[in-house]
Amino acid sequence: MESYDERLLMSSIELTPSQKNILQELVNLHRQSESAVKGEDIAEQVDRNPGTIRNQMQSLKALQLVEGVPGPKGGYKPTSNAYEALQVQNMDEAADVPLKHNGEAVPSANVEEIDLTSVHHPEECRAEIKLQGSISEFHEGDTITVGPTPLSKLRIIGTIEGKDDTSNILILTIDDMKAPVGDVEK
């Protein structure tokens, strides 16, 4: 059990955008492989030099956000503190919210949060979709289908207008939104 001081420390860690981006990518890659992630793989995803990643990992280790795994299958693993620092839930028991990219299911991504940013302006309605999983394959103009969500059976179809790599967020212009959706034959 963490002490109050440890929780306070975790909530006050200020990461640079670069550290946040590297940590987010480590979490994404670790989720996919469920094993230690090599620095080279992170470097490739964030378009940085592997030496830079090694240097950043030393400071992230000092902050107790990553642990090094020695050996040929070694690399880095995020600690539970990493999830807290990124304000990401560890989604092991989370409900699965399906995601489609240009009509194709994306099994490696899970929708963590849907933020409807401007519902009071229907003609410019936007949604921010926070994902678990890499967003590097998503590009402006791509079509995204989110849902149906577990409880409200909400489904959003939208076009990517932008993305925030540091926070793992896709910004969509909503083309269609319905709730409830699902099979009626149950």
From TrEMBL:
It holds the Pfam family WHD_HrcA. One of its GO terms (molecular function) is DNA binding. Signal peptide: none annotated. Transmembrane segments: none annotated. One of its GO terms (cellular component) is cytosol. Residues 14-91 form the Winged helix-turn-helix transcription repressor HrcA DNA-binding domain. InterPro entries: Tscrpt_reg_Rrf2, WH-like_DNA-bd_sf, WH_DNA-bd_sf, WHTH_HrcA_DNA-bd. This is Winged helix-turn-helix transcription repressor HrcA DNA-binding domain-containing protein. Coiled coil: none annotated.
